[in-house]
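Exam revision sheet. Question 4 asks you to relate a sequence to its structure. Input first:
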Amino acid sequence: MNRIIIIIFCFIYFHCTAQDTIKVLFIGNSFTYFENMPDLFRNIADSAGYKVKTQMYAPGGVSVGDTAQGTMAHMNNPLVYDNIRSDKWDYVVLQDNQGRFVLDYGKFSSSSLVIQGHFKIRDSVIHNNPCAKMIWFSGWGMKNGLPPYGNTGSEMIERITANYHFLNDTARQVIAPIGAAWEKIIQINPGYDLWSADETHPSLEGAYLTANVIYATIFRDDPMYSSANGGLSVSTNNLLKQIAWQTVSDSIAVTNLSSITPYLQLQNNQLTAGNYQHYFWYNNMQFISTATSNVLNISQSGHYYLMAENAMGCKLKSMSKHIIITNITNNTLQSYFNLYPNPAKSTINIDFTKENAFPLRINIFNINAQLVKNIKINDTVNTTIDVSDLEKGLYLIEMIGNKGILEIKKLLIE
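Answer key, structure tokens:
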């Protein structure tokens, strides 16, 4: 009897009827400009298959509302508003001088109109596109702190994070939890230096982690599905992507990301959404023309998600559920590929048994339903995959073809 295996790990594919280009404007200073962070973001999105347009306005040393900067301050700068009006942006990532957020909770320097500046730019963005969303850049401070505003980098991040939440209590947009992801890296692997030599700006690792957090926030998608690596090693690339996704997905409520993400419930082979004006369901990036209500019956495996349209005509993207409907035996099904050795220790070999089922990629999930490997297939006959970095235990190997999931098998690593 068929049974549904729900991979609890969820992600979103942005896709409209004609796969709209997602337009993202970055406004900031050198924290955004270093290592060309918006370019790293675009590469992640492009390699994941999303159509993205980015634009950056990031002059060095500029803050959102410093009164001493006059018309150079973002809130007073005509060039900022020229950039906002230059296109119908879906998202605007606004990065302020992070030092303006290091005072005690709910306090900002009188020399910087932090809240007023963010509100003014937010209002301009929404006036230009009522469906647009601001992404607040909740980042980091100096590597070794700046007493009395924190004796370590982590202490400064905690202050910055707290004040971004204070800002968002009234601004009601979406926080990108960049600093929180930096803190996780500092805690679990302090050997990764996220700061550059000046101990203020990001290193390549820091900029890449930041780009992945923004990507996960905007696309609600695990960056592990992207083949981009930022020029970093496999282990570094994987760790930064995993931490970025974990941070964003664990904080969806407190960052207010949940306010623009329709919730999907799976029960009795049905996906059910809340109340919206219109419903556009998709499976494996294909529009399901027969489904027009808030309920979708599930009859086959695939990536399911909803594009819900609210009363304002704005499209909201749900978190997709990766659903597999199959009989999983202990590798007795040999219809599409042979897998050996199984159990395995360091490598596995995959031989493809049907040319017309040549896969696009192989996904490997651990027992907690987390994607731990995403391998693009370049050989139509066979491939070898290194699994020496995976812990001992049971995994699921999923073969993806150009029409969706072809087959899934169990793999034991010992």
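Marking note for examiners. Residues 236 and 348 are 22 Å apart (CA to CA).
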